Amino acid sequence: MPRASDSKPSQLPRLRRIEGRHNALVKELRRAFARAERTDSGDCAIEGVRIVEEAIRSGLRFRAVFFRESAESLGERLLPQIGLHVETLLVPDKVFDGAVPSETPQGIAALVRLREFSVDDILERLQIGPIVVVVGLQDPGNLGTILRSAEAFGSAGLVLGEGTVSPFNSKVIRASAGSTFRLPVALTRSQGGCEEITARLRSQNVRLIATSSHKGTPLDQTRLTEPAAVLIGNEGGGLPRNLMAQADELIAIPHAPQVESLNAGVAGSIVLYEAARQRRQR
Question: Does the pTM exceed 0.70?
Answer without folding.
Answer: yes
